[in-house]
Amino acid sequence: MVTIDKIFHASVVLKDIIRPTPLAKAYGIAPECELYLKPENLQNTGSFKLRGSGYKIAMLSDEEKQKGVIACSAGNHAQGVALAASKCGISSLICLPDSAPISKVEATKSYGAQVCLVPGVYDDAYNRALELKEEKGYTFVHPFDDEYVIAGQGTIGLEIMNEMNDVDAVIVPIGGGGLISGVACAIKSISPHVKVYGVQAAGAPSMYNAVRSGRADALSSVSTIADGIAVKKPGDLTFQMVKEYVDDIALVTEDEIAAAILALIEKQKMIAEGAGAVSVAAAMFHKFPLEGKRVVSLISGGNIDVTSLSRVIERGLMKSGRTSNLLIELVDKPGQLKDVSRIIADCGGNVTSVHHERNGETESINGCYLRLTLETRNYDHVQQITQALRSEGFKIV
C-alpha cells in the first residue's frame, strides 16, 4: 500500500539523492489563472524518475543490492535507475531497444549503468530484461507500477504543499500513472480540497480510456511527440490509485504540446520534453476550470531529443499563429506579387518563403498559385492580413 507515511519516509531517504526544484511563477502562459511550474526538468538526470527509482533501490535488502538491479527503458527511467544505483553503490543493467537514440544510450552509460542493446522495439527489450532477471536473479525496477516507486514520486506532492499550502489545483502528466498516483496521494492526504488533474497525449490515451471504461485495457498502438508518456497500458496499482485520488483527466493534441514547449522556451527560458509540457498545454488551452485559481503545472522532464526540437518549435509557431501558410490564386500578370507583398508589409507581416506555381488547376486559364509562409504575431494578425488581401480582390485558397 502507498501511504502518506511511506511518502514522508521517501522524502527523508531521497534527501541526498535528489536536488530541490522550487516552484517558479509563470508569466504570460495562462493569463486566466495564477500559474506556477514545478520544474522537475531541472532534477538530476533531467526528470522526476530519479525519485521513484532512488527510493525503490534504497529500500532493497542487502541480498538484493548484492545481486544488482535491472530495468528496461528508452529514456528517463533508464537514467534514473542508473544514477540511483550508482549512488547506492550497486550495479545496474539497462535493456534498451537498439533503435534508441545514441544520446540516451550514452547518457545511461554515463550514470554508471551497463547497457544491453536488444534488437527490435521496447517490448523486445522488456522481455529480454525479464529473461535476464530470472537468469541472474536481478531485482526488476518497474517504471511505474510499484509502491516504492510511486511513493518516491509522491515526494513531489509534499514539496508542492510545503511551498504553497494555498494551491487550488495541480496538473500532472500521465503515462503509466506512477507520477500522478504518488503526487495525488500526497496532496489529497494533506489537503483533500485541492484538485489534482491528469493530462495525457491524445495519441496515447491509455489511462484516460481506462478511467472512462472502467477497464485498464492495452492500446493497440501509441503515437505522440510526448514519448515519455506513450504507454499502451496503465499499471494495475496506478489505475486503482488514479480512480481514487484524481479529479479529472484531459487529452492534449500534438499541436498543443508543441505550443506549450515553445511557450516555456520563450516565456520561461525553460526546456521541457513533450511529456513534461502536457501539463502546461492543459493550462494554456483551457482543459480544466482554472479561472482565478492558483495552479501548479508539473514539468516532469526536460530530456527532449535536440534533433527534433526544431520541428517541435515549428509546430508550436504554427499552433500559436506565429507563422502561417497562405495559398493565393492569382491572375498571372506583372505586378501581382508586388501588390501582395505591399499589403502584407503594410499589415506588419514578414514573408519568409515564396513559391510560385503555374501548373495548378485554377479557375482562370491565366491563373497561378502563390504559396507564402509568413511570420505573424498571432491568429488575429493572420486574420487581418487575409482580410486585407481579400479586400483588394485576391482569392485566398
Overview of this structure, please?
With 397 residues, the protein is an alpha/beta fold. The protein has helices spanning 4-13, 49-58, 62-67, 76-87, 102-110, 122-136, 147-163, 178-190, 206-213, 236-245, 254-268, 274-284, 306-319, 336-346, 379-391; strands spanning 24-25, 34-39, 69-72, 92-97, 114-118, 139-140, 169-173, 195-201, 248-252, 294-299, 323-331, 350-357, 367-375, 395-396. Strand 4, helix 5 (102-110) and strand 5 form a beta-alpha-beta unit. The protein is elongated. The mean pLDDT is 92.
- Binned, the helix content reads 40-55%
Spell the H/E element sequence: HEEHHEHEHEHEHEHEHHEHHEHEHEEHE
**Which strands sit side by side, in order, in the main sheet?**
1-2-10-7-8-9
- The number of helical segments is 15
Cα separation of the termini? 60 Å
Shape, per Cα inertia axes:
elongated
Keywords for this entry:
397 residues; elongated; 19% strand; single chain; alpha/beta; 15 helices; four-stranded parallel sheet; six-stranded mixed sheet
